[in-house]
Amino acid sequence: MPLVTPLSANHDLETQKLAEFFNETLGFCPNSVLTMQHRPAISKAFINLNKAVMANEGRVTSALKRMIAWVSSNSTGCRYCQAHAIRAAERYGAEQEQLDNIWDYRTHPAFSEAERAALDFSLQASQVPNGVDENIKKRLYEHWNEGEIVEMLGVISLFGYLNRWNDSMGTSIEKGAVESGVKYLEKHGWEKGKHK
């Protein structure tokens, strides 16, 4: 049972229009956004931030951004966001081999060294206390420019917010997200947990 009940998708028409972005990303409007509508200024600001963070300005692909989000969510333990991130990675063209082996990104040949650096950055930046150090910085600068690093940290920070929001809310997980969680993550212990 969620902490706060999501409102109807048409509760706030401005939010509803902005939330069309998620139909492309996930195939549905997430219950997290529907819950944020209790204060429409929050839902609108969140959607606009999400759109800005997920825009492609450099070589950080949409698929990689969603895999960065998955690593961040996996690090914090948010089952809701793990399923959403892997679903979005699939919808944005992540290679099947990467989706099937995301848990083993550090060693699996489907991942490049540049992707490993980005995903390790996500892991270290998502931990408390923060684990970003000179080694992470060095590895990032071997493959990415400063604007691309800003894009990556934007994703990590956005999912820091979402991980806290959805785990605290116990946000009810949508059918499509469950399907993706089962397909790619269940073999490693993923389950809905509190997000029923």
TrEMBL record:
Identify this protein by name.
Carboxymuconolactone decarboxylase family protein
Q: Which organism is it from?
A: Flavivirga algicola
Q: Where is the Carboxymuconolactone decarboxylase-like domain?
A: 40-120
Its lineage opens with: Bacteria, Pseudomonadati, Bacteroidota, Flavobacteriia, Flavobacteriales
Which InterPro entries does this entry report, sorted A to Z? AhpD-like (IPR029032), CMD-like (IPR003779)
Q: Name one Pfam family in it.
A: CMD
